[in-house]
Amino acid sequence: MLSIGSLSTHAFLRKENHLTLKWHGEDAESGIFDYEVGLSSAPSGLIPDILPFTSTKSHPAFLTYHPNLGEGVEFYVVIKAINRAELVANEFIGPLVVEVTPPEFDGEITVTLEDDDHGNSYLVARWSQDAFYDDDDLDPLEDYQVAVGEAPGDTSMMSYVPLSTLESDICEVTIPPSCVAVPTDMLDWHLHGEQTYYISIKVTNVAGLSVVASSLPYKHVVLLPREGVVYDIVSPDERGVSFKNFEDIDFQTSVTDFHCWWTGFSHPDQDVQYSVALGTLQGSDNVVAFTNVDSSVSSYSFEGLSLNVYQRYFVTVEAESELGSVSVSSDGVTVISDGESLTDTHVYDGLSCDKLIGSNDTATGDSIHHDYDRRKACLDDINFQASVTTANAHWTVSENMTDYITELKWALQSELIQDSVEVWDYVVEYRPVHKESDIRATDMALRPGGRYRSIIKFCHPAGCFQPIASSGFWITPYPPVSFGIDEVIYDSAMRELSFTWKSFKQEELDDGVTEDAIDYYEWSINVATSDEETQDGHLILPWQRIDATPISDQLHYTTTLTVGLDFSDCLRLGLRGYNKAGLSSTVHKEIRDCSVAGHITKNVVIDAVGEYDDEIDDVGYCLIINFTNN
Predict the structure, then answer these.
(1) How much is the pLDDT for 420?
(2) Do residues 225 and 266 make contact, with C-beta atoms less than 8 angstroms apart?
(3) Counting Cβ atoms within 10 Å, is residue 615 exposed (0-12), middle (13-18) or buried (19+)?
């Protein structure tokens, strides 16, 4: 009897150059005399056509080389057993197929880290469903196994396990499979940051031949994208170039468009996707919500907006990778309307009083040892000046607008009257000035009697506001002209002094302006020291300011003296008029005509002796007078 174990539908031979057989046979009555083995292409061929019967010399084993068996050839093994009675028994084994080629892999395996709905973490490998194949195998590939390691084909973190044991919600195992989800808690240790791992897929055919395909490297990244820098920029149309190397702006005039550019966002291992937003605060999107942009670009233009003037807006760029996102905002742009008028902003002629405190030419308001301070009072806005070589101006800007102003330009204009119409012509064209609060222009050649004004342009990087002009000032380089004192009257009984005079004038000014140029008058009493009336002489009473009363075309003033006048000398009234540029003229008139006899009574000096009687209240000094010839 010859027995052979059961075979599958097909048996496979993994070597095509030799064949080894072993079997068991017995004959209880006469015993086995010999065995013969042959190879046949048919299951019933008693005469083998591939390899003729060959004796094994009674051994239940056979080894032969078969160069005629090629890849995929189907054949049968015929074993003939001969006992000592020369009786024969045949056994057929097969069909057998020569299979020497393992499965093949064509494609790539990608790996990602994913979580399911329950928060479980998986390393997920994916490939195309037809990536593994075996063209010489009639049966489908079913034996898939997976392993995890730190190098291609490495199994140090997880040895090979069948894919069928790893089915999950993330990856459903099909036939043939195209993915596998490996729970991270099955690994021999936790995934380490910035380390690289590989998943290997092993596929074995029915002949026991295998192919191992390893995934692309998976780097376990724990870093977020690197933060970049976001710039607010002008439009390409405004610059005439593409988005590249733009300077950051702080102001713009457009209320419909907003442009930005960014750089520096990156990730060493993952792709970065961008989204941009526009808001009134850094990080906010209350104007334009976050909008995805192509990852290949680094600029964006918001269009069709309705922005508010004097509002600051910020662009926020969000850079997102697989692990998370970072966001960076620009420093913002304030929208300004070009050519708009500034409110609560003023330009004044002359220097600010703050700059003149302590000057010897300007009154501070504090009298020290003088009866009153005759220095010209400081005015924040002058209407007249004496200098023909300087032009000064200062200005104030509303506090809520100072941050917008980055540049100032100053010009000087002269007034012209053409056909009774006021026209202003440029004497000095616009020129930049320091961003301070005043301008001191020298080396001017201003015309006496002319009217001038300063004009300031307050500018921002995107343009300028409407120019603001001062009220103007006249040039009065000469002292006022006096027309003398018309009349002086002194009432000795009442000790009352009154006088009248015609208003001083500035001859270089037109009649409509000349009287406005006179600031004030003051008077004094002095004793003439010569016949020239223009000299002040010796003061008897100091200069005092006059609060004059206009009478017709004259001015009149009356004052009561504390003591009567002593006309032992020729007393004169001094009258001085100041213009608003600080220049003055003085005129004198004798209180009594000193040329008339009796108007002047010389004092007599006598020597006297005697004692004062303090018991007599209503009597003055008691004098004993001795006239002498001396």
Answers:
(1) 81
(2) yes
(3) exposed
Fold entry, domain 2-98: Immunoglobulin-like (2.60.40)
CA angle, residues 504, 508, 510, in degrees to nearest 5: 85
Mean pLDDT of 128-136: 85
Report the candidate in 198, 73, 178, 180 with the shortest Cα–Cα distance to residue 133. 178
Helical (H) or strand (E) element with 184 = none
- Whether the model clears a pTM of 0.85, i.e. scores above it, the answer is no
What length is written for the chain?
630
> Nearest 5 degrees, angle CA 595-CA 490-CA 592?
5
**Per-residue burial over 529-566, b = 16 or more CB atoms within 10 Å of its CB, e = otherwise:** eeeeeeeebeeebebeebebeeeeeebebeeeeeeebe
**From CA 34, how far away is CA 38, in angstroms rounded?**
14
- β-bridge partners, 556: 500, 549
Decide: 136 and 71 in contact? Cβ < 8 Å: yes
Say if CB 207 and CB 137 are below 8 A apart.
Answer: yes
The yes/no answer on whether domain 229-335 falls in CATH 2.40.30.10 is no
- Structure tokens belonging to residue 541: 């009473």
Using alpha carbons only, what angle is made at residue 115 by residues 114 and 117, rounded to the nearest 5 degrees?
145
Place of tokens 């380089």: 477
**Mean pLDDT score of the chain:** 84
Q: What is the C-alpha end-to-end distance of the chain, expressed in Å?
A: 196
Residue 247 amino acid letter: E
**What one-character DSSP code corresponds to residue 356?**
H
Query: Which of helix, strand or coil describes residue 147?
Result: strand
Average pLDDT over residues 3-15: 54
- Report, as an integer, the average pLDDT of 74-86: 84
pLDDT of residue 530: 65
| CATH architecture under which domain 104-219 falls | Sandwich (2.60)
Q: At CA 489, angle to CA 483 and CA 494, rounded to 5?
A: 150
Q: What is the pLDDT of residues 178-199, one digit of tens each?
A: 899 999 888 988 888 778 999 9
Q: pLDDT tens, 586-595?
A: 999 999 998 8
Return the CATH number of the domain spanning residue range 478-630.
Answer: 2.60.40.10
Residue 630's pLDDT band (cuts 50, 70, 90): very low
Please give the Cα distance from 364 to 375 (Å, whole number).
9
**β-bridge pairing 273-279 and 312-320:** antiparallel
